[in-house]
Structures
1.
Amino acid sequence: MTKCVIVTGGAGYIGSHACKALRAAGYEPVTFDNLSTGWEDAVKFGPFEKGDLLDRARLDEVFAKYNPVAVMHFAAFSQVGESMKDPAKYWRNNVIGSLTLIEAAVAAGCMNFVFSSTCATYGDQDNVVLDEESVQLPINSYGASKRAIEDILENFEQAFGLNSVIFRYFNVAGGDPEAEVGEFHQPETHLIPLMLDAIAGKRDALTIFGTDYVTPDGTCIRDYVHVCDLVDAHVLGLKWLEDGKGSRVFNLGTGKGFSVREVIDHSRAVTNMEVPYVEGDRRPGDCTKLVSGSERAIKELGWSPDRSNLTEMIGDAWKWHQTGHYEK
Ligand code: UDP
């Protein structure tokens, strides 16, 4: 019988790519999503169960129906800027919602949990390469909410033996090379899709958020990872748990950082079009530099982030941008 995996946020950007990867690996991905930011059109690789993380009865129903071997938990609000303005939204949905999901999983006897956390849990640690042992000092409510969920998972392991693989993502970019699914947020806040929209004339010039950071060109540095590499790591993490290897935290990044200006330069080269941009103020909550120490996932999971170069990430995002869209 095909093994089911509950994928919360399966109608979203990363979750939909994870469903495709799970399906390819022989699992049945069951999307659990309230469609607050996701797209029903993105649910293409397994069943859809509409529901909200805060609705325990609905969660219990779905666990009982599918008897999943694991949960992959992507559903979350994830905008740093918004989290600074509306922290309650982040604590309620991300933390209380995850707690409800974790309780439901344990009650159903589903003891394998793959969680999407973030490098934002590390905070602003000037010019340090961040590995899994680095201290976590989030500087925004989004990062704080994700760190709290990591703590909940640790406590549930101590109390009930819940096994979790926690992935701390750096900047996820790119899309399915076949453009079946892709990145489409409403509203969009991420650098690469905003830039592609600006290139295509679909919105005004990109604003560079801050040019006075202490970096070689004054703009923030991020470590970009291809969404297909990222979800491959999730399948490896799932197998790690199924093999009984126990709870573990892994960073998912490449160890190489690129500034906003470097991303703009690559986009110009990939699309062969000019990137209209203006220089603006810093965005509250942004860290100067976030670069992953990514050895652990490579060594222990056997992960190979081969597609995580800017040319491929921007190229695949551009392909999706030209062909793909979802309708509400
Ligand atoms: N950024 C920017 N202009 C934008 C959006 C983002 O200059 O319109 C910068 C942002 O300050 C950060 C980088 O691009 O340094 C990546 O931001 P994004 O929102 O894509 O991801 P985050 O790092 O916040 O997770």
2.
Amino acid sequence: MDEKIIAASKRHPIVPLGEGRLYTYGTAGFRMKADLLDGVTFRVGLLAALRSRKMSSKAIGVMITASHNPAADNGVKVVDPMGEMLEQDWEGLATKLVNAPTDEDLAAQYKSIAQQLNINLDAPGKVIYGRDTRPSGHGLVAALNDALEATSTQATDFKLLTTPQLHYLVRCLNTEGTVNAYGAVSEAGYYEKLSEALVRALGGRKASGQLVVDCANGVGGPKLHEFLKYVSKDKTGLDIKVVNDDVLHPEALNLDCGADFVKTRQKPPPSPRPTPGVRSCSFDGDADRLIYHWLDPETGFFMLDGDRISSLAASFIADLIRSANLQDELRIGVVQTAYANGASTAYIEKHLQLPIGCTPTGVKHLHHEALKFDVGVYFEANGHGTVLFSPHALRTFRDTQPQSPAQKDALDVLAACGDLINQTVGDALSDMLLVEVILAHKNWTLKDWALTYSDLPNRLVRVEVADKDAFRTTDAERRLTHPVGLQDKIDQCVSKYTRGRSFARASGTENACRVYAEAATRSEADDLANKVAQLVKQYGDM
Ligand code: 16G
Ligand code: MG
């Protein structure tokens, strides 16, 4: 085994990052310029081989993607058996394994982790993997496969997939043949499950008007085309026009399009030219983020981000739960991060009267918190999120005897939503179908949806600092404990603005700090963001 790993590792050398710098498994796994990733991916293969054996030979997923990042980047992350993100303790092991200085050290680390965690290396191991459309994905898959071969791990290549599809497949594979079977273990199984749930969730209603879907020139494009083959336009009213679906020119990926572009630039993708009044939405490069938007003929561009999707979904499901007379039986809650617009938080708390949890940035934190509810709605403002239903909730939808046609309808739609909404991770395609279902039920346009509340103007600023690790936070990243004294200064600053709120945190994906600010007016929000950014810069350079 040792020799095999060492020999294979020699074909996938790790590129030293230089003095004191380490590869770290962050919020999105390992992500960087693709040419640094060959050795990293090989080593992640070793980690996945260990993880599968630790998890009683269950299948582990590995996804090769850099999501919304530029085409030249790539990334690799590990999916746990139920389709969740890799368990946090293992992130440290991943970092350790990837930074082993020599091939021999690597093989020794592999064995020592197995020993420490009582992993039987002779047990069977199983890993499945997929990749987005980046050309560098081919080579990285080969590196991954070499690690699986060197460790005699059974490997299945699902080729091109969206990230949420891989999460789906991992869960399906590990629940196959059990009472919790999640679906057929194939891409077709995914489309069948969603298209069938879509019809049930609509319950005879139809989507109206065209929906233009910007696929960021990423893997979402071909996958959405594929999905549409499973959907009857007549039955569902779904009239989708797929745009920015060019996967033949790799450099086009995420370039001036996609969910991240729309969210950060607060404008529609310039191409194709947006038609005023048409309902539109954008996926990111691996189709796990969704942002709705449209160009209003009178008032201009308007965006419905993750906060909006979250409050829409929460209000819809809470209404259904009341119609099903289950409000005393099932607890529904919403989970956000500090980036959620204050207006959305107030709307959910005061108007919808639902409990809210706030967690640090990163999907795994939100997901974990959402599991505490029977129905947990979680979204990051950037458009990543989903709705989790507990086994108890799903059973209740199925087993409750309806006392009226209205109650039956509510129970059926709730059960359908449980199948429509990806239970493993945020999924742009599945979330989009949910939004379409809700709009059809409410007979709403995007404008009706937008009118539910008004966002507070906000601004995000990126600040370069010498050492981002000097910035440490508490209270779900809403307050800084370090550098000492900075939080007081921020508080003083914030207190001068109407409805002002601001926080600073170290990025988990780049070497920089991010400052968020919101206030009653555009100019106040901009001003507050700049003032806090100056403070961060000043303390960062001290
Ligand atoms: C990663 C996270 C995303 C988060 C972002 C924040 C996952 C799968 N992805 O992309 O949820 O919003 O990082 O980036 O957890 P930042 O730390 O650089 O602000
Ligand atoms: Mg993504």
3.
Amino acid sequence: MDKILVRGGKPLKGKIPISGAKNSALTLLPCALLTDEPLTLRNLPRLADIDGFQHLLNQFGISTMIAGSRPEDFGRVMTLSATRLTSTIAPYELVRKMRASILVLGPMLARAGEATVSLPGGCAIGNRPIDLHLKALEAIGAEIEMAAGYVKAIAPKGRLTGGTYTFPVVSVGATENVVMAAVLANGTSEIKNAAREPEIVDLCNLLVAMGASIDGIGTSHLTIQGKDRLHGATYRVMSDRIEAGSYACAAAMTGGDVELLGAKMSEMDATVDALRAAGVMVEESADAIRVKANGPLQALTLETAPYPGFATDMQAQFMAMLCMADGASVLTETIFENRYMHVSELGRMGADIETKGRTAILRGVEKLTGAPVMATDLRASMSLVIAGLVAEGETEVSRLYHLDRGYERLEEKLQLVGADIERVGAD
Ligand code: EPZ
């Protein structure tokens, strides 16, 4: 199993190209199901989760062609063609490896009038139920059956009717699933208390480019007039605001000065506000965001919330960044019930963090010390790399499959800005 070795103490300086957004790509890919014409997606990140999703779509008979790109390029162009489907079943052995597979449920149901998807099960950060996905689909006409660890959704008479659904809590994935189902319904759908994440806007923009009718894009109230069919499109995936925020924390923590190429300030206001509150200089240029350390970091009080609040996907990275800040920081994780798996590993590097339920209290320490640490989930693994970039000595991060799910060529990007980091195969 590969490991990452990082030796701390180097301020990050230079430019980092930001890749296409994983959490947008994972909802744009299943849109290929919604048309029998080719869908071309540009700026797709090279990530394990994208490869996994491609493999899942191939199972349904969807052809996927990746346009030639030089090895040194970041991102890929993929053309997907769902001319004819050979299956409507997403099997357990694929879904269990990647819970985002549940995002085929809505579009497959819309396209084929039925869909059967293995229940995704939980993951390290929480049990991750899908009840809201199912309730939203039922509200627009689906009939749902559960059996043998699978959920089967059927559109009586072969087509969804449309309808109205108000989410009791904000859910990114459930919003994505119901939007992808509603665009082909035989009627209008009103989705209220919908998630407003930039990735949802990216999804709606792609669907409109394919001929869908969606009003209220970017708001929590979406009105979707179903169409009889959608056509193909060529679309560029948005930049990854979480990857950009992660590298911003690394630059801030190492006393660096980094330009994040392709990052958009408008998609990461809460992250930028938090960085500035910690004393970091952040400014936007034409197609980049510059992040420059500006003296010692200040402690913060942060609470995660649905967009436009402070992103739960940034919590672990800020926790690492604040380990050496002046004073005590308080972080509260309101979205997932178990998203502090990185706390014990950061503690092994000398961080002073105490958790009480969903709240973590960090007391700034003078230094961190490199140690062998273990990644437990995607964002936790990035927090360990960030800590290693400033820790004295060498940090060895294992279980990199977590990291490879969400960060394209991480060590190469950090080497671009002077980090002393390398990936080694385990002996
Ligand atoms: C998406 O997960 C992201 N994943 C997550 O990013 C992100 O943390 C999360 O949204 C919140 O922003 C992708 O986009 C692939 P939710 P999702 O439905 O859709 C509960 C990363 O690190 N809930 O908004 O699964 C749920 O348990 C990943 O890139 C239900 O109760 O998140 C959670 O407490 C991690 N019932 C809350 O809602 C449901 O049916 C928010 O979950 C669905 C969700």
4.
Amino acid sequence: MALLPILQYPDPRLHKVAKSVVSVTEQTRKLIKDMAETMYAAPGVGLAATQVDVHERIVVIDVSEEHNDLKVLINPVLLNAEGEEESEEGCLSVPGIYEKVTRAEKVIVKALDENGKEFKLEADGLLAVCIQHEMDHLQGRVFVEHLSHLKQTRIRAKLKKQRRETL
Ligand code: GNR
Ligand code: NI
């Protein structure tokens, strides 16, 4: 068990595009365990491997209050997206920043689980938002990149100031 350091925006490594997992091995499961532990400790409702500087298509999500509904998505593929909904998002790589983002309201994804078995998942609400947020990370995209350039500039300035003050 280990807590992994989370990359902080604007780190260029957050923009790397993750590669598909070729085979789900013991090593994959070890990484997933550490990612889940890191997500719960943060605390967060999701974590993409990109955020812990591993550029493979692996995501963990748990939107339950009790932390007892871990979802592992390896090589996730969006099969369907419908509707639009705006909701406030945050990100463990962009601490203290919360902004509204418009995403699909409902999604259907397929992925492999930690045993390499394919499954489909239909989601709405926070789970749907989180799936899309994490799949963005795997493409090297951070949620603030959905915002205007002016907002992005202000966010970078705010993060710099925050970091100066906590150093
Ligand atoms: O913990 C998180 N909360 C959250 C809230 C609204 C929309 C998306 C998220 S994901 C975020 C964890 C994270 O950064 N995942 O990449
Ligand atoms: Ni995030």
